[in-house]
Amino acid sequence: MGFMDALLGRRKTKAPAPDRLFAITTAYVTLEAEHSITTQGAAAIVFQPLPTGDFQQIVADVEETVRGTGQETGTGVETHDDEFSYRWVILRDADLEDLAVGINAVSDALAIGGYKDRVLCAVFSFKDSTGKPLYFIYNYKRGSWYPFVPDTDPTHPKQRSTERELQVKAIVGSELPIEPELDRWFPLWGIPI
Predict the structure, then answer these.
(1) pLDDT category of residue 17 using cuts at 50, 70 and 90
(2) Degrees, nearest 5: CA angle 45-121-184
(3) With contact defined as beta carbons under 8 Å apart, do 147 and 169 qualify?
(4) CA–CA separation, 45 vs 67, rounded Å?
(5) Parallel, antiparallel, or unpaired: how do β-strands 144-148 and 133-139 relate?
(6) Which residues, in sequence order, are bridge partners of residue 90?
(7) What pTM did the predictor assign?
(8) Three-state SS across the chain?
(9) Are strands 144-148 and 87-92 parallel, antiparallel or unpaired?
């Protein structure tokens, strides 16, 4: 921060710590052992693609890298473009740590290429003891997590179970850097994992 910034009261915002993404791997121990919340073996990173050649090359290279290492770890990779033109790089692996490492590799490649501002979030898919889906969403810009629990009642499409989300927050709030502002817990409908 320069002299003029200090004088005018401007501050540089601190980037979120990248290790916050990996907090899901330690929180998972509590989720599984104490609450029967298990991974569904899928995670995704969501970003807004650009039609530029260098951006497309970065994405192709990282997909190839994940595929190459996936032969060793068992991680599968696929892509999906949604109705809002966001790209989902979807990883599938029974090992949650492998999923976190893979998601981190994709986000690192985009950041190194100068495109970290294009990344929306990472999503990890879980299910509770009754088989109902729940997701943990990592907001890269805020460096925080929040639970998203869609209401599975078919008569209430695009409804969420806020009560269950708050219960999940209480379960892992001490182990996961949870987004403190509830109005920033944005739902993601049509999650392809």
Answers:
(1) low
(2) 160
(3) yes
(4) 15
(5) antiparallel
(6) 44, 78
(7) 0.87
(8) CCHHHHHHCCCCCCCCCHHHCCHHHHHHHHHHHHHCCEEEEEEEEEECCCCCHHHHHHHHHHHHHHHHHHHHHCCEEEEEECCCCCEEEEEECCCHHHHHHHHHHHHHHHHHCCCHHHEEEEEEEEECCCCCEEEEEEECCCCEEEEECECCCCCCCCCECHHHHHHHHHHHCCCCCECCCHHHCCCCCCCCC
(9) unpaired
pLDDT (tens digit per residue) in 108-140? 999 998 899 999 999 999 999 999 999 999 999
Q: Is 116 exposed, middle or buried (0-12, 13-18, 19+ CB in 10 A)?
A: middle
Domains contained in the chain, CATH given: 19-178 (3.30.70.1710)
Per-residue pLDDT tens over the stretch 144-170: 999 999 987 778 778 999 999 999 999
Total residues belonging to the chain: 193
Nearest 5°: phi and psi at 100? Answer: -65, -40
pLDDT at 37 over 60: yes
Short-list 100, 87, 93, CA closest to 24: 100
Q: How many CB atoms lie within 10 A of CB 108?
A: 13
